[in-house]
Write a structure and sequence with these properties.
By secondary structure, the protein is α/β, with parallel strands linked by helices. It is 57% helix and 10% strand.
Amino acid sequence: MKLVSYLRVSTQQQSRSGLGLDAQRAAIDAYAAQRQATVLQTFTEVESGKLNTRPELAKALHLAKVTGAILVIAKLDRLSRNASFLLALRDSGVKFVAADLPDANELTVGIMALVAQQEREAISKRTKEALAAAKERGRKLGNPNGASALLRAAKGNLAALGAIQRGADAHAIQLRPVIVALTGEGIESLGAIASELNTRGMLTPRGGTWHKSSVRNLLSRLERMPVSPV
């Protein structure tokens, strides 16, 4: 049996022991050993809450399709509300298995995707209704000064600068597993790391492409930050 492994992690998920990268790898390795299967390649997705694209998932699905392998993920239960992931999995035509739910199939994922989409639409509807009710009561919504006032205030506002710093730190934490993986593959120069990050669709904290200087800043930031236990 041939397997393609897909790992998924975000800043929030790293703080939960059940969804750490090490825990996911252990679950998939145990599944492969039990089935005497061979893992052809492992793809690791470092997700941002602001981005809905999953380039590593697309690569994993493509490899599984062209090799006839089975896509294996560690945990399906925690992803059951992620409609875009489930829909991509359902529509890919690739056989898959979840280590925590080995009996799950395409029908299971299709049902989960429909439930997730329904929940998302229900939340959106409730939010719009709440905002409309608040507006009818005469409550002013939004920032009356607009975003430009916030940008001007940020220049001398320590709180705003602190928020920017925390955002950069969070982004660095998201990318730490990717940097570790690249260095493990012998990709260590600033230019080579920048090229790999761009190839994998990773963005800088400001949403741009990577250069030697931005990689240098990322590595310096990671050196200053302690490695949190998964």
